[in-house]
C-alpha cells in the first residue's frame, strides 16, 4: 500500500472541475435509471413531475429531478410500513437497519443498507481518515455507543479497512474511556466535539494531562462545532492534538465531507461519491460560491435507498477547491456545516445562531458547560445564557466574566441584551452525542405566563 | 466460468466512466470484479457463497472508486 500518498483515491481526488462533473453526470444517469426502475416511490414521483432519466444531458438538467424531503420519506414509511417505498428492497437483501429521529412523532426514520452499501459507507470514511494522515500504525479509540444511531459505525469499519488497531469504546463510563485511551496508547480519538471536551474535563479531574498522552489526532463528527474555530482551538489545546472535522447524516449513511491535513478552515466535499447543491431555502434557486444556502445532496453510494436531491436542512457556504493547498479538486464548505437552516432564532428582530453563541462562549476557558434559553416575558422575547463554571474557578471573578461575556455577545448581535446567569456545578446536561444547548420556550404555555 | 471470461474479454476494450483507456492494473481489477459477480450466480456451498458476496461488495468499492464501473448489486445479493 502506498502509505506516502496524501490521497485515499488519487485518481478522483485530483480531478479538475470539468472531469469531476463528467464523472458525476455519468453516475447520475445510472443512479436515476436505477431509482426509476426499482423504487416504486421514485417511479411515481418521476412520472408525476414529468421527469425521465433520459433527459439528463448535462448537470444543468439536475434541477429537473424532483426534490426529496424528510417528510416525503416519513410519509412513505407511514403509508407502507415499516420501510416505505423509497427503498428498492424491503428487508431481504439488507444487512443492517439504522434509525434517526422522525418528523411525525410516530416513529423514527428507518434506513436500510445492503452489504455493498456498508462497504461504501466505510469507504467514504476512508477518504477522511486517510486524508488527515491516519495510517495503519495508528491506534484509534472510538468513543461511541455503537447503537442504532449510525454515528461512528462507518468510521469503525474504515479504520479496520485501513489496518488501524481499533479500540471500540462502547458501553463505557467517561472515566473508563479516559483510562482506556491512555492505557491503550491511542493515537487517534473519534468523538463528537462536545464529548471530546467532556473527556478532557474528566481527564483533568483524574489528574491526567492529555498533552502527555499519545493522542495526535481527533476525528470530530455529529455537530457543527468541529469547524467552529474557537471550539476547535479549545479541543486542540485540551488534547495537545490536531482536530479534524467531518459531517454526515443517517439519510446518506455516512459522511460526505471531511477536513484534510491542510486544515483549510472547511471541509472538502467527497465529490466523486456525492453531488451537492447549495440552494436558497426559500426560492430553491442555486446560490453562488461564497453565499450561504441549504445543502441538497444526491448520493451515488447507497443503492438500497436511492437518495436524489435530498433537502438536508444544513446551512453551508461553498467555496472553490483551490481555497486549500492540498491539491484536491473537491470543493469546500467553508466553516463546515454552519448549522441548520431552521435553527436561526429571531430575538427582537436580531438573528441569533447557536453556532455564534458557542464561538463566543468557547473564548472563556473558565466555562465548563452552557445553555441558552429563549423565553417570552410580558410583551417581549428574552434570551438568557446560563453558564456553569469549572470547579476550580474563583467565584470572585464572576462579575468581570459576566460583563465580558455580555459585552462580547451584544457586540456580535447588534447590541442585543443577553441575560447572563451562573448555575450550580452539575446543573446543566452533559452530552455524548449531539448536544442540544439552545432551548426555545416561546411556544410553551409556561413561558407565556411567567 | 464462460460468462466470467466473456465479461473479462469485453472489459479489455472498455474505457472508464471518464472515457479514458483502462490501465493494465485497472483491467485486472475489473476482471476480478466481473469474476466475483459471475461466481455469485454459481452453485457454491454457503461458506463460499457468503465469502464471494462479501468480496464482491469490497471490489465494488474499488471499481466504483476508480470510476471503472458504476452499478448497484442487490441482484447479486450484495
Biggest sheet features of chain B: none
**Biggest beta-sheet profile of chain A:** 12 strands, mixed
The two chains with the largest interface, and their residue counts, are: A-B, 27 and 21 residues
End-to-end distance of chain A: 65 Å
Average pLDDT level of chain A: 92
Derived from helix and strand composition plus strand pairing, the structural class of chain A reads alpha/beta
- Beta fraction of the residues of chain B? under 5%
Anisotropy-based shape of chain A? globular
Q: Count every beta strand of chain B, where a strand is a DSSP E run of 2 or more residues.
A: 0
Rg from Cα of chain B:
12 Å
**Beta strand count of chain A:** 20
Oligomer: heterodimer
| Poorly predicted residue ranges of chain B | 1-11
Main traits of this protein?
heterodimer, A: 450 residues, alpha/beta, twelve-stranded mixed sheet, four-stranded mixed sheet, 12 helices, 30% helix, disordered C terminus, B: 78 residues, mainly alpha, 0% strand, disordered N terminus
Explain what the structure shows:
- The complex is a heterodimer of chains A (450) and B (78).
- Chain A is of the alpha/beta class.
- Chain A has twelve helices and 20 strands.
- In chain A, strands 3, 4, 5, 6, 7, 8, 9, 10, 11, 12, 13 and 14 form a twelve-stranded mixed β-sheet that branches. A four-stranded mixed β-sheet of chain A has the order 19-18-17-20.
- In chain A, helix 8 (193-205) links the parallel strand 5 (188-191) and strand 6 (217-220).
- In chain A, helix 2 packs across helix 3 and helix 5 crosses helix 6.
- Chain A is globular.
- Mean pLDDT of chain A is 92; it is low at 445-450.
- Chain B has three helices and no strands.
- Chain B has helices at residues 2-12, 24-40, 46-65.
- In chain B, helix 1 (2-12) runs antiparallel to helix 2 (24-40) and helix 2 (24-40) packs antiparallel against helix 3 (46-65).
- The longest helix of chain B is centred in the C-terminal third of the chain and has 20 residues, at 46-65.
- The relative contact order of chain B is 0.18.
- At the A-B interface, helix 2 and helix 5 of A face helix 3 of B.
